[in-house]
Structure to design on (637 residues):
């Protein structure tokens, strides 16, 4: 009985072009587009900013400053005469200007520091990027001054050696070694979203099956309600598995080819990934069965499914990461099954979590699945 | 083989029962015509026999067993050709037959053989690989029939099997139903077309508002109608007149 039912389900689904596109193509496109679009949010690159230097100082310190700046910022463009216009128009993203007498004043312990190194940024530069450049300039100048002034004091310190020591280190900690890049964030997000799109497919096919009397026929042939439910869960868990493999493949292999960053799976706990995927899949399929039993027409299923998905995704941090949401929204997000799925996947893919780390999320998803199955089953028996 | 005793059914939230104290028998080798206007309760009755509705009142006996016991033993003894096109529109004719054969427990070469037989019987071999939703109305009805026959049922339930069908397919289906009865099946055939029932039924049950208003052999009923009918019309009119007199309303939705 099960092979026949499962084969029927897979055949029907494979002939539903829109359903297939929603399940496989859409999440793939989202991953690619969103990863490319958000690339710089996660790993802003200062090298790509176009800048020029307007050095009005002839001192040595100014040149050292410019050299050190270029180490991180890349080579400066030559300074055009109308650089202020270029800056306002955004063709230059910033200009580093150095006031006359900067070197002399910076080396003078008694100076008031009126001659400055200035960062003039284009109007469109984002706040985070602007702050980052400002802090970098501040740190380079502060260090330069410290070196010069210490050397003057003649305390017998090896200033050059001291300058090489930077007692500060910063990194994002993740056991698996993966950094939170756009791809690393977007693959799990859109994978969860895509997996929940089985809701529309299952519900649509199920309603059609019920309306045309095929379900009644299966029942009269002796198929029990639980068998019909299981025969729907199995193929769609398989579909979810294929989706997951496909999305991870896009992240790992396709993204680097098309110019994005590749996804890293090194050190990932595969068992934890499987647990999470299975839990998400069960939640999605059970929700689908309940939706299918709630609606009475194919059109309702085709509308309600995607609306539910988009709502859960928006609330659950798929579209906008929860950490940028205001506290109230973050509290609401904690009720979205997609959020549980996403957080669990991030535990595995980003934070190097093992099975134990994902158990809370997997547990919540499984609980949700059981609740939905119970509701769905009760409705199912009444409606078949 | 089939005996229905005092069957009653009321849908949740419905004011009047859909079936009210319905009793009749069906025997092997005969077509029982179940006649009634829309809403009479024909589909509800068929759904009971197919095991799709729980029995609220009365009983259904199959060869001295309760329906539930008979179904638990061998559900495929009773087959239904539902009022709707009860198959998967995106699957081909053969894929549909394979699915329902598998669900009913047929496998391997036996399944292939049965599918071939049913395709031949319904004369749809030429359309075996066609998607079911591309079939014409008549062909869809024939596929519905073919699926119902897959498991050699002893009791075949046809719920208005000629709705939306061209005259050729209708004649074909009526003939096929008659053949199945002649081969030993018990057939229950619901319709609101009198002439169909006149053409193939051995016995007739008139259902109206959930009640059996008349039942008997076709010949007796025709004779009774003849006797009662003042202006007997030729051929098909007789049973219809009787029916109108019994139900006492000419137009229903
Ligand atoms: N699922 C249902 N829920 C409530 N009432 C129903 C349902 N199905 C049928 N009915 C009602 O039961 C009565 C008999 O319907 P039905 O058996 O479909 O009649 P027929 O097949 O003779 O047209 C009608 O009054 C109909 O409105
Ligand atoms: Mg009906």
């Amino acid at each position: 009985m099960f092979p026949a039912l499962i084969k029927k389900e897979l055949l029907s689904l494979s002939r539903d072009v829109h359903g297939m596109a929603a399940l496989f193509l859409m999440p793939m496109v989202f991953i690619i587009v969103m990863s490319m679009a958000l690339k710089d949010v996660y790993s802003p690159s200062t090298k790509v900013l176009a800048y020029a230097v307007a050095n009005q100082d002839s001192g040595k310190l100014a040149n050292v400053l410019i050299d050190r700046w270029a180490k991180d910022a890349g080579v400066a463009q030559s300074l055009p005469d109308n650089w202020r216009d270029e800056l306002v128009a955004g063709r230059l993203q910033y200009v580093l200007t150095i006031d006359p007498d900067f070197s002399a004043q910076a080396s003078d312990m008694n100076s008031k520091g009126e001659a400055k190194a200035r960062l003039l940024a284009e109007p469109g530069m984002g706040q985070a990027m602007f702050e980052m450049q400002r802090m970098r300039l501040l740190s380079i100048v502060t260090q330069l001054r410290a070196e010069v002034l210490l050397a003057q004091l003649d305390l017998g310190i090896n200033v050059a050696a001291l300058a090489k020591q930077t007692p500060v280190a910063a990194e994002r900690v993740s056991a698996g070694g993966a950094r939170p890049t756009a791809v690393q964030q977007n693959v799990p997000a859109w994978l969860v979203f895509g997996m929940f799109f089985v809701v529309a497919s299952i519900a649509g096919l199920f309603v059609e099956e019920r309306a045309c009397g095929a379900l009644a026929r299966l029942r009269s042939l002796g198929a029990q309600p639980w068998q019909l439910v299981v025969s729907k869960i199995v193929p769609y868990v398989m579909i979810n598995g294929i989706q997951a493999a496909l999305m991870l493949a896009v992240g790992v292999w396709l993204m680097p080819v098309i110019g994005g960053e590749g996804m890293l799976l090194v050190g990932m706990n595969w068992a934890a990934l499987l647990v999470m995927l299975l839990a998400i899949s069960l939640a999605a399929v059970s929700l689908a069965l309940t939706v299918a039993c709630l609606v009475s027409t194919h059109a309702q299923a085709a509308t309600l499914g995607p609306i539910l998905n988009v709502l859960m995704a928006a609330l659950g941090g798929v579209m906008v990461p929860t950490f940028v949401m205001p506290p109230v929204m973050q509290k609401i997000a904690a009720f979205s099954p997609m959020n549980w799925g996403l957080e669990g996947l991030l535990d595995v893919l980003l934070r190097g979590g093992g099975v134990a780390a994902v158990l809370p999320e997997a547990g919540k998803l499984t609980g949700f699945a059981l609740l939905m199955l119970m509701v769905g089953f009760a409705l199912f028996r009444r409606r078949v | 083989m089939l005996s229905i005793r005092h069957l009653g059914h009321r849908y949740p939230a419905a004011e009047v029962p859909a079936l009210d104290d319905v009793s009749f028998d069906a025997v092997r080798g005969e077509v029982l015509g179940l006649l009634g206007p829309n809403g009479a309760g024909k589909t509800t009755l068929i759904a009971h026999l197919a095991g799709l509705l729980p029995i609220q009142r009365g009983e259904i006996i199959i060869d001295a067993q309760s329906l539930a016991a008979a179904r638990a033993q061998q559900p495929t003894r009773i087959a239904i050709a539902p009022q709707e096109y009860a198959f998967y529109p995106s699957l081909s004719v053969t894929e549909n037959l394979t699915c329902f054969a598998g669900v009913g427990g047929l496998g391997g070469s036996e399944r292939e053989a049965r599918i071939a037989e049913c395709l031949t019987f319904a004369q749809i071999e030429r359309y075996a690989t066609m998607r079911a939703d591309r079939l014409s109305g008549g062909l869809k009805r024939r596929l519905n029939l073919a699926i119902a026959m897959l498991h050699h049922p002893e009791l075949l339930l046809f719920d208005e099997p000629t709705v939306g069908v061209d005259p050729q397919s209708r004649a074909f289906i009526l003939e096929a139903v008659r053949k199945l009865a002649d081969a030993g099946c018990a057939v229950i055939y619901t319709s609101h077309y009198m002439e169909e029932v006149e053409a193939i039924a051995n016995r007739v049950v008139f259902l109206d508002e959930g009640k059996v208003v008349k039942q008997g052999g076709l010949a007796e009923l025709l004779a009774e109608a003849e006797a009662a009918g003042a202006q007997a019309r030729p051929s098909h009119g007789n049973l219809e007149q009787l029916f109108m007199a019994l139900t006492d309303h000419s137009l229903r939705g």
